[in-house]
Structures are given as structure tokens and as C-alpha cells.
Specification:
- The complex is a heterotetramer of chains A (653), B (334), C (183) and D (100).
- Chain A contains 26 helices and two strands.
- Chain A has helices spanning 10-60, 88-119, 123-144, 148-166, 178-208, 213-220, 225-242, 251-254, 260-269, 274-281, 283-287, 290-312, 317-337, 341-379, 398-401, 403-417, 423-438, 440-465, 472-476, 482-497, 508-514, 527-548, 560-565, 567-573, 578-624, 632-652; strands at residues 65-75, 78-86.
- A two-stranded antiparallel sheet of chain A has the order 1-2.
- Chain A starts with 9 loop residues before the first helix and ends with a helix.
- Chain B is mainly alpha-helical and 334 residues long.
- Chain B has one domain.
- Helix content of chain B is 67%, strand content 2%.
- Chain B has helices at residues 3-38, 54-64, 75-91, 119-129, 131-140, 144-175, 180-185, 192-195, 197-210, 222-225, 235-260, 275-297, 303-333; strands at 101-104, 107-110.
- The longest helix of chain B has 36 residues, at 3-38.
- In chain B, 47% of the residues are buried.
- Chain C is mainly alpha-helical and 183 residues long.
- Chain C folds into two domains: 1-81, Up-down Bundle (Four Helix Bundle (Hemerythrin (Met), subunit A)); 130-183, no CATH class.
- Chain D has a single domain (4-92), classed as Helix Hairpins.
- Chain D is built from three helices and one strand; from the N terminus they run βααα.
- Classes of the chains: A mainly alpha (653), B mainly alpha (334), C mainly alpha (183), D mainly alpha (100).
- Chains in contact: A-C, A-D, B-C, C-D.
- The B-C interface holds B 74, 77, 116-118, 121-122, 124-125, 127-129, 131-132, 135-136, 138-139, 147, 150-151, 154-155, 158, 161, 178 and C 28, 30, 34, 37, 41, 53-54, 57-58, 60-61, 64-66, 69-70, 72-73, 76-77, 126, 130-132.
- β1 of chain C pairs antiparallel with β1 of chain D, so a sheet runs across the interface.
Amino acid sequence: MDGYPLFSLVPWTVFLPVIGLLLNLLVGKRLGEKGIGLIASLASGLAFVVSVLLAIALKGHPEAVTIPLAEWITVGEFNLSWAFRVDTLSVTMMLIVTGVGTLIHLYATGYMHNDVRHNGDPERYRRFFVFFNLFIVAMLILVSADNYLMLFVGWEGVGLCSYLLIGFWFEKGADGIGNARAAKKAFIVNRIGDFGLLIAIFLLFWNFGTLEFDGIFAKAAQAAPALLLAITLFMLLGVTGKSAQLPLYVWLPDAMAGPTPVSALIHAATMVTAGVYLVARSSPLYIQAPAAQMTVAWVGALTALLAATIAIGQYDIKKVLAYSTISQLGFMVAAVGMGAFVAGMFHLATHAFFKALLFLAAGSVILGMEHGEEHAAQGHSPGSHELDPQDMRNMGGLQGRMRTTFWVYLVGALALAGIAPLAGFFSKDEILAAAFQQTPAIFVLLIISAFFTAFYMGRQLFLVFFGKARSAAAEHARENPAIITVPLIILAVLSVLGGALNLPGVYTLEHWLEKSLAHVPKVEFTAWVALLSLAVALAGLFLAWLVYSQRRMPFKDTDPLARYLGGLFTAVYNKWWVDELYQAVIVRPYRRLAEFLAQPVDVGLIDGIANGLGSVSRSIAEQLRRFENGYVRSYALTILVGVAVIMAFLLFR
Amino acid sequence: MDGAMILEWVIKSIFLILVMTGGFAYVTLYERKVLARIQVRIGPNRAGPFGVLQPVADGIKLIFKEELVPAKADKLIFTLAPVLTVIPALIITAVVPWGTEVTLFGRTIKLYLADINIAVLYLMAVTSISIYGIALAGWSSNNKYATLGGLRATAQMISYELALGFAMIVPVMMAGSMSLVDIVESQKPVWFVFVQPLAFLIYFIAALAEINRSPFDMPEAEQELTAGYHTEYSGMKFALFFMAEYIKMIAISMIGSSLFLGGYRGPFVDQLPALGPLYLFIKVAIVLFVIIWIRATLPRIRYDRLMQFGWKVLFPLALLNVFVTGVVLILVGG
Amino acid sequence: MLTTGTIIFGVFALVVIASALGMLLSRNAIYAALFLVLNFATVAVLYLILGAPFIALVQITVYAGSIMVLFLFVIMLLGAEKLPAGEPLGHHRWIALLFGLVFLAELALFLVYRAGMRAAVNTPPLEFGSPAAVGMSLFQKYALPFEITGFILVVATVGAILLTRGEGFKGRKRTLEIQSQDK
Amino acid sequence: MIPIEYFVGLSIIMFVSGITGVLLRRNALVVFMSLELMFNAANLLFVTFAAYYQLLAGQLFVFFVMTVAAAEVAVGLALMVEIFKTKKSIDIDQMNSMKG
């Protein structure tokens, strides 16, 4: 800490949101919507300010600093304190989490206002922001942790918050429990991953005797390779759960059941990047285990490709973005798997900008559609109520009615597709370059994914904004107020300029992160890889234009793509039946096992034992009851007999 | 432990008992005279000059009275109770010094029976067991008035014992010793009554209640309990109760004088130790006069008021006084 | 060896034992209480012999003077000195006596076989158990237990008042009701 | 002087008398008194060993026992009075149900 008092501010990144949520919890009822939104956004915003201060402090003093806050666990030799780690990696994450988080908070104050209007129950407004702040708290604990256990606390905390927020409209969805089911699914699938992380932590503790990062990393080189492989692979299981990678990605598309700001905050910008952060944080371990690194890279690449293909066949505006997120996370995981930690972190940052932008803009579109639907319902037939405001088949031609949204969406989509000067281009290109240098096979996979990415983004753009309106709601859609559009514009600007973080040749981010990840190999800028990726992106967009914009797509018509692809499109539309596969292979046998355990085993055997014990002890008690005659003196006599017997034993032993 | 020492102790003990019993006899006369004067009467004046032989006459009369024992009484305790009442009264003054030292028959004689370092504790111990006689007398009479009187006395004495104890602690704190000799000696510059008037007042009130003197003589309130715990007593047994009461009066006067009024201390006592007992006698006589005076003037207070006064006024006050004294002593004395 | 000390001790020990047995055997609770008072007073004398004058006098003040007076008071108040005869527990008395004797025998055996300290108790110097010494150690080394004891006393006082107070409240309310009815 | 065994033996006799009193007497108050007798036996031991080892702690412990005993008696007797009010008896054998 020597001479850098700014570092001791770090606990406030966590405290401020805590204060915010406590305030809202205690007095929020009296404050009304404006006050609640203000407090929540302010809490998050101040945390961002603190993060910026930390970043400034780190500039002068780039070495990692540990700020202990309190004694946490002291058991025998084992001593773990609740300590914050300030280094370039964690501060980068803090900046992203609080910065993007604050913008989403702002956006949410407007979005949830409409939500309350549409879905009733004004109490929810407060609850939403309490959860939001809680999420920020958990996420900051995760990224600022100085040891694996504290990281795990944050890890579980974000899991809990995602459960709470996905199920925010718990009474909605299929059969009235669809959203609750989605929340449950997210939680349970995440739990499988957490189990892996937990085992990894146990192994770490068992072998290194400590859970602090520095302590473990210092000894990592001496550890047995097999052990490191086990640890890193179990950790990978955690990563696949939290960062929605193969095979545990299935929860993320369903998680779109939550309100759009939730999707933006949790499932695009912050929580899902925790896995990437974990791998980057544990880079000293992964570097010692090349096999694990390879596995990570392959998992990421395959996920990127699989999710990209699925995204092509989706109609729900948010589902497309969800699969896109999975795909992009695959890019990042592949990057960190190949040792290109900086590239992964870079993509993480830019992705946070444009994916948050896309989600929020999608939310803006949905709000606009809802407006239009209301408007249409007033003027025309009431039958058009069943219309799904998230289905892209119902949209079209929105670019005229929602100008701002259109432009920012365009920026986001181009950035995601990887068009040249935008943020996504630089970060994705860096990953591709790294892949090309290390593992050409992965490079191929990723470049195909990039092509698909451009294609589905183009598809989405054309379906939503171009052509003619395909429903009354789309005809009457209108632009949203400034509270919603301003954060969008800010994010759009960030998406445009985000590439400047790590421009080839300048490498700001790389020099910055070097301090935390000094041991990782450098990635060279390769001109023709960049050109290839740009070409692929343009090709994808062009193909999308070819397919979707030439003809007007009428309502509920089959996708033009389906005609070219046939059965393949059905497979893509049905997400390669992965959910069904899981259902058949895992859930159903598991349920059958549970039923077997419940019926014959539990009712017959276990209950039999329990009841038998009960009746045995009851009959013994019937006999013993005679001693309980209620006479104090006879109890005293019993005590005396006992004492006399003990004394006799002591005397004659 | 030579023989002479034991002899000296025996003589001093006997002397003390004689003084107390003789004192008892003449305190009765003293009381009757003073009462009579206050009530503008003359008082006993037939037996001897100014009635000085009146106590003797009373004694002779009581000895020849018939001893009644109620049929359903518990005879053993009924007989034991008066004795149990007198004994504490007689032994309580054992630790009170009458003077410093005098030389008599070529031998330095200390003018006190025992100078023990727990004298005040001893006083409290004896006070606390002096309840038995009264309580047992009331109970063993098998008479509801007597029992009630005994119970009242018990409750009253337990209640006031606390305030009494706290009042007695104050001189102990001032002197830094529990020995009465030390306490008296430490009053050489100034009597404690001037430093601690409140403590003395509390001591005095509590002591009056402790010996069931007016206005705290509820246990023997004639109007409601006939004569309280000694209703059934007559003859010498009654005389013993009477005796105990008056000896206790003397005792508390002596103790109070020693604790607060400088005991045997007075002018020239250092030069002429024989003056000590005289000073003590004068002080005791004055205190006794006050006691009798109070009896003549104040009405008996109601029983519930008495208990309330004891618990809600006297006890907290005494406690507070001890506390304040402690604080001041620490601040001043270090 | 009969020294003066032993003889004095013997006399007092006899009184102690006799009064304990007297308490045990007397039918009348008042007598039991009085025997116990005698017992306590005699034990106080033993304390004096053992060089604990402070404890001895506290014993008299607290045990003989307060606790036993309270017992006596309650016995008299309740008129509970005698109970009707009759024993609801048939063999209880004999089993109790038997085990009491067994226990006594065991303790005696302990004393004989396991004692291993046939030393005499010397009367300690006078300052040993003096109020000053006791007070010093009470307020310095044992200040916390002392405070806790004080707290226990306060709690007990409150508890005792609360336990016996219930009727008083009702009674007062009743008189108030009667008074209001009169008006 | 007096051998320590004498005191210990005396304490044992007192203690056993107390136990027997608790077991045999039916008057709850006498049972209570027997408990006090047992306390006293223990106290005697404390003081004896305090003198034997010349340790003041034994005496102080007795002091604490006495104080706590006073508290215990105050509450105990209050309970007795209450029990007497409801049961109209102080027979310990009548106190054989949890409810008053």
C-alpha cells in the first residue's frame, strides 16, 4: 500500500453497491421510482468512479496490491482473510463491470418504468434494483478476490442473482412457470459447473495448503502435472457452466426470460465473462498444463461454431443475441485457452460494450413494439394481442420509426460482425491471429464462426429494421425516451472506439495487462489474417443481404433460408436438439432413478428402518416410563445411585 | 494465653455483662422518668429517693410472678426464645471499646474486651441472628397475634439490616479498618457524624427499626396485635424480653457513639485514659435520651409504610451514600 | 493424640454431626431449621479455627442470619412445619438409606486409602484470611466473578419479587374495583 | 494441630447427611435445607484446603458459594411460596406434574 492511499479505496467498490441496496431495501418503499433508480445507479456509478481512481493509482504503481479487510477463516494453520486484490486484471474487470453496469442501471430505470406499466406490481421496481445492486456486489467480490474461496463466494453470488433476475417475472412464461423453470435451469446447470470449480478449489487447498492466488501461483511450477491437469480441467467445468460453454451452455438461451437489462448485464456483459476471467486469473496454472489449455481452446472453438450455427435459425430477437453471446464467449474461451489471455480480455471488454448495446437496443425494440401493439390494439381489432413483441417475424421496417435505436443497433451489429474500424474487428482479429499462429484447426473453426456471426447479424438487421412492417405493432412502434436511448448512444460510442484499447502497434491493453499476465506469450498482428476476417465478415453480411432483403418476408412465412438449407435449417431452428438430447440422456434416466429411489427404496426401506427404530424406541420408552414417576426424590435417588456406582468404579479400578 | 490473661478476660466479660444488665435496669427508670417529664408527669418516685430503687422493685415483682405456658405452645422453643433474644444483645457490645488503656494494680489493662479486625462484621453477624428469639417466640406461642408479631419483626429486621449494614460500612471506609478501636481512633480529628451526617441518620433510623423501638415498634403494636410476639409471655420470661430490648438500646447507642460520635474520645482523653469510659457514658446517655424522646413524640407508622420506607428510601439512600463516599474517598485520598 | 486443638475440634465436630442428624431426623421443619442454624454457627467456629475469620462471620451473617431466617420466615408464613404422615414411595426409603450408607462408605474408603496427606492443618497467620486480604484478592484477582455474583444477586432479587408479586397486583386491582363500585 | 482428615471426614458426614435429607424428607423446605447442608459441607472442605495449602482462593470460593446460595434461596423460597399458593401443600411428592 506504501504511499498509495488510493488503493485502500478498493473495498468501497463493494461497499457502495451494498449501501445502495440496503438503502433501497430499507427506505426504498418511500422513495418512489425516481429515488430508487437514482440510488441504485448512483451506487453503481460511484463504484465506477472508485474503479477509475484505482486504475489511475495503478498507472503509477502497476504491481499487484493486496488490501486485507478482515480476518475471515482461521482454522488451525489455515488462515484466510477477506482481502481485495488490486492489479491491472482485476481493475480492468471492475471498470467493465461497474462502467457497463452503470449504463445498464440507467437504462433499466427507464426500461423498468415501462415494465411496471406493462406488468403491474410497482413493488417489483424496488426489488429489481435491489437484485441489480446485489449482482454488482457479487460480481465485484468475484473480480476483486484475492483468493479462490472469496472468488467462489462472488461466483455463487452472481449465480444466485442470475437466478433471482431470470425469474424476475416468475409468474410468466409457458404454463405460468416457464420463467421460473428457466431460472431454475440456469441455477441447476450452473451448479454442475460450480461443483467442478469447488472440486478444483478443494484440490488446490489440498495440494498447496492455501487458497491465496500468490501463494498458489508461486508453487504452481513445482506441482505434479497430473494434478494441475485435474485442477484446471475441473476449473474448466466451472467455466463451461458460468460462461455458457459446451456442454453446459443450455441455460443461457432460456435465461432470456428475464427482463432485457438483465440479459444485457448478466448474460452479455459481466457474469458470463467470469469464466474467462477465471481462466485468465489462473493463467499461471493453465500455462503449466498444456493439455488443459488445449481442451479449453477446443471447447471454446466448438462452442463458438455451434452457437453461431444455432443463432442463424432463431426468430426471437433476444435468442439470436443469446446464441451470439455464447458464440462470442466461445471466442474468448478459445483465446484464453490458447494462451492469448490479453486477446481474450480485449474481446471480453469490447464484447461487453457492443453486446450490452445490442441487448439494450433489442430491449428498446421490444419496448417500441409493445408501444405499437398497445396503439394498434386501441385503434383496431383486440385480437392482435397474442402477438409476440420479441419475434423478429413480426417486425420489419423499424428503421424509419426508431431512428436512434436503428443506428445504435447497426453500430453494435457491425461491431459484432467484425467490420473494420469498430471495436469487434480488432479484438476478434487478435484472437484469430493467435489461433492462426498456434492451432490452425481452431483458426478454421473460428473463421467459420465469424462468417456465421456476420451472417446472423445481417439477418437480424434486415429482418428487424428493413423491409416493410409485418405486423400492426411494428407499424405503430415508436422511439423510446432519452433515458433509454442515451445509454445506448454512449455504448455505441464505446463500441466504435473500443478497438482503441489495444490497437495493433500501440497495444495499450497489452502493456497494461502485462503487469498481471507477464508470463503470457505475445500475439503478433498479422495483416492477412485481419484482411481475411474482414472479408469473411463482409461476405456474411452480403449473403444475409442476398437472402433477406431482396424480397419482402410476409408474416409467418417460412424463412427464405429454410428453402436453401432444408432439413439443416430445421435442425438449426431446433438448436440441434441439444435440449432434447439432454432431456433424453440425462434428465429422464435421472428422474427414473429418483423415482426408483423415492418409491421402493425410500418408502419401503428407509422409512421401514425409521419407523422400525421409532417403534422400537417407543416400546423401550414404554418400559422406561415407569422410572419417570414425577417424584423429585426418586430422581435424586437415581442420581445418587449413579454417583455411588461411579465412585465405586473410581475406588476399585 | 497465660492464666492472668484469661482471668482478665473473664473479669472484663463479667464486668461488661453486669454493666449491661445493671444499665438495663436503670435505662427503664431513665425512660420512665424522661417520658414522665415530657408528658408533664413526675414518674416513679416512691421506691427510694427519686425512685432509684424502682427497677429493683420491678425485678422482685417479676421474679415472683407466675410463669404461664400456653397449652398448645411448643414448650422447648417457648422457653428458649427469651434466652435467644437476650444473648445477642449481651454479646454484641464485646467489640466496643470503652477507652484506651489504664494501669490498674500494676498491670496495663486494655479497656475493651476484644479488638478484632472484623469487629463491624461481628456486629452485623450478631445483629442478624438476634432475629431468631423474636421470631421463635412469636411462633412457639401458637397464638396468631404473636405469630404475626414475630413475622413482622422478622421481615422488618431483615429489611432494615441492609440499610444498617450500609450505614456501618461508611465509617469502615473512612477509617480503612473494621476494628472499632481503629475507627474510634481515626475520629481523633473530627467525629464522623460531622463528615457523614446522612450515614449517621440512616444508622440511627435503621437501628431503631432493628431493635423494634418506637416509631418502628410494629411487632408489638398493642392496638392490632395486643402485645405482639410476647403476648403469651409472663414472669421472668417476659422480663428477659424486656431486658433484651433495653440492652439493645444501650448497645446501639454504644455502637453508634463509637462509629460516629467518637466513642470514648473527648478532651484530655489521651492524657487521662480513665476519662474514656466517662465520655462514652455521656454520649450513650444522650443518644438514649434521643431515643426516648422520639418514642414520646412520634406516632407509630403503618406497617406497609414502614416496609416501603425501608426498601424505597432508606436502602437506596444508604447505597448511594456508600457509593458517593467511595468515589469521594478515591478522589481525595487516592 | 489428644491435643487441646483436637479436643476442641472433637467437641465442635460432635455438635456439627449431632445438629446435622437432628435436622435430618426432626419431624418439625422449624426444629430442622434451628438445628441447621446451630450447624452453621458451629461450622463458622470451625472456620475460625481454620484461620478464616472473614468467612466465618460471613457464614453467620449470610447463612445463619439471612438464609435461615428466610427459611424460618417461610415455614412460619406457610404453616408448613408439619406434613401428614404416609409414604407414597414404598421401597424408596430403604433404597435411599442403603445407597446413602454405600456412598458414605465409599467416601470413607477414599479418605482412608487415597488421602495420602496425613499432615495437620496449621492455623495460618492472622493476616491470611483477614478482610483486607480477602478484599484485595476479591477486587483484584477475582473482580469479574465478583461482578457476576452481584449480577446474579440482582437477577435473583428481581426474580423473587416477580414470583411473589403476582397476587399483589391482582389484589390491588380488586380493591380498586371495589372502590369504584362503592362510588 | 488438627489433622486434615478430621475436617474432611466431618465434611463427608455432613454431605451424606445432606444427601440423605434430600432423599428422605418430604417437606420441600427441609429438602432445600438439606441442600444447604451439602453446600456447607463443600464449603468446609474449601476452607480446610485453603488453610492446608495456604491459598486464599479456597476462602474466596466459599464467599462466592455463599452469595450465590443466597440468591438461590431467595428465588427458591419465592417458588416455594408460589407452589404453596397453588397446591396448598409443601409436600415435595405433590410436585410431580409439570403444570401447576
